Amino acid sequence: MPGIWAVIVAAGRGRRFGSPFPKQYTLLGQESILSLTLNKFSRHRLIDGILVVVHPEDIELFHQSCPDFSASVRLATGGDTRQESVFNGLKALEQDPPSSVLIHDAARPFIKADVITRLIEKAASGEASIAATPVVDSLKFSTGMIIEKNVNRDGLWQAQTPQAFPYEMILSAHRQASDRNDFTDDAAVAEYAGHPISLVESGRENIKITTPDDLILAKNMIKQTDTNGYLMESRTGLGYDVHSFEEGDHVTLCGVDVPHSRKLKGHSDADVGLHALTDALLGALCEGDIGSHFPPSDQQWKGARSDQFLIFARDRVKARGGKIIHVDVTLVCERPKIGPHREAMTEKMAEILSIPPSRVSIKATTSERLGFTGREEGIAAQAVATIQLPANEE
Hints:
By secondary structure, the chain is of the alpha/beta class. The chain has twelve helices and 18 strands. The chain has two domains: 4-222, Spore Coat Polysaccharide Biosynthesis Protein SpsA, Chain A; 232-390, CATH 3.30.1330.50.
């Protein structure tokens, strides 16, 4: 078992959380808290393996809540305390030991990739280190809800996880501390064994979800962060396209073939709705327009279905760590009537973009018999796309 392993501590019962089942299996967005945490380590380029310490009664719950990881992580069963659970996890790696381990709380799903990297570098050099954030609030001491004294916050840090160690160092430290059960984290265990611990500054976003209020905060955070825990920013793009009519028996609009007395003229299938939306997404990305990626002079696009252009734009959003939040297309024409086909168009665009239909808006209007659309010489479309991209991507 070479390299670096993450030991994720998920054996707690979460009694302060007020849930009928352990908090780490609660949904946060579309995934469980534990699954989101596992994602952070499974996607990190320096992590070679993951071991999850679960409660003996939660093994089936783990497989139900983290189906993407059922076959890719190892499991160990926890003990009566966090300290004992970690020790069980470390011993489970003993037959083929890694060089370093990162020990992390299951209920901290917002750890950033760069913090993991810095901790790994410390462990690789033989150091023990922990993620921590400096205390910024004023501190008061009280035993009965009356302030008894102020506490100087200078030099105070709030300990977090991951906590990283050379494997043999932390395993030996846990053996030495096995006659006690009052250590609240692994840094305290290592200190008890005489090892100095260094700090790796993390952010305040690396919260441990402990109470229902924490879950509310986490739900808001997940809407605003990418998979590495970085804040997202919103971008909006505008697209416009127009195609004239020619002889034919249908038009293709927003991915749906609609019967009509004529068809739209174009190098591809002339889907004016998808063309406008593709340009809107590319505009939000600041990556040119549809013509710069699929030039009409290129014969390979002659007669092509326009959904592949939209798929390209969708995949560009994903490649930059972004997500599509909402799209809105307005079709301008006298005929054909859009209303009877609106639902099919909505479903088709949602399918192409891999987003829920509730995030797709399709509208239609006429130009009151004015202009080329009013004279039924063609169809125009406007589109607006809202996406989120990592704010730090540059």
